[in-house]
Amino acid sequence: MKKLFTLFLSAMLLTSISAFAETQRLTIDGSKGKLAAIIQKPATQPGEQIPMVIMMHGFGGNKGGGERKTLFDVIADKLEAQGIASIRFDFNGHGESEGEFWQHTVPNEIEDALQVFEYVRDLRYVSTVSVLGHSQGGVVASMVAGKLGAEIKSAVLMAPAAVLRDDAIRGSTFGASYDPLNLEGDWIELMGGRQKLGAEYIRTAFNLPIYETAANFKGPLCVIHGTGDRVVPYTYGVRYTEQSNNAELYILHGEDHGFMKDMPRATDIAVEFLSRQVK
């Protein structure tokens, strides 16, 4: 009788532990060293599988996870409430990840994202994997989805910065002017010298097949972009949907690049779409 009670108590304890939501900080091998990441996982029962969303930040951004709630913190919380897990991470040279900022490129960020995909795909509790990206992270997410095809359940692009290729071609990035065909040195200075943009970033961006690669993804696609975006004109987001037969487009009037005017609305659209597609 005592043994049966002990087994019953152990089963109850295991059930109660698994029922709790969990936030885990971890590192994953990336293209330039260790990537700092956060997994946010809703309450599950033993053996239960749930959808996972990989979130990718923009140029100079980070995964969040601090005291101040960022766009990704809000989305992760809302996904958790819908029973969906998420992982957000710092690209190489950003946030808490290893590497130098000036050495990051879109291609090596794609490598980072593919490494994160490999990690979460092998987690036993993950049923499907979707991607969400903001700004340059939107470009990376779109190209990762194009490379992986049916392995990605759905994709959300928030103000995707496909303008970065045109910026490189005309030799103007964040106010810095340069000759893309005759780059001198390893980097150019941005923001009055407060930041460095690598020459390799520009060289790879010049010929980056953004839309061509993204077009290979045939799954459900959601694009959210604001007409008040002065960093990336909303037409760059529209173009993604014009080459897809399975896309939803949300143009938010007056919204800026960071969705600061009405973050609840933008994040609700993203989470509702993902929830609808993955469940």
Show the helix and strand layout.
Elements (H helix, E strand, L loop, with lengths): L1 H17 L3 E9 L2 E9 L8 E7 L14 H11 L3 E5 L16 H16 L4 E9 L1 H13 L6 E4 L4 H8 L1 E2 L2 E2 L9 E4 L4 E4 H8 L3 H5 L6 E6 L8 H8 L4 E6 L10 H16 L1
Parallel strand pairs: 3-4, 3-5, 5-6, 6-11, 11-12
Antiparallel strand pairs: 1-2, 2-4, 7-8, 9-10
Account of the 3D structure:
The chain has 279 residues and is an alpha/beta fold. The protein has one domain: Alpha/Beta hydrolase fold, catalytic domain (Rossmann fold, 3-Layer(aba) Sandwich). It has helices at residues 2-18, 71-81, 106-121, 136-148, 163-170, 199-206, 210-214, 235-242, 263-278; strands spanning 22-30, 33-41, 50-56, 85-89, 126-134, 155-158, 172-173, 176-177, 187-190, 195-198, 221-226, 247-252. The strands form three sheets. It has an eight-stranded mixed sheet with strand order 1-2-4-3-5-6-11-12, with helices on both faces. Strands 7-8 form a two-stranded antiparallel ribbon. Strand 1 and strand 2 form a beta hairpin. Helix 5 (163-170) crosses helix 6. The radius of gyration is 20 Å and the shape is globular. It starts with a helix and ends with a helix. The relative contact order is 0.14. Mean pLDDT is 92; it is low at 1-17.
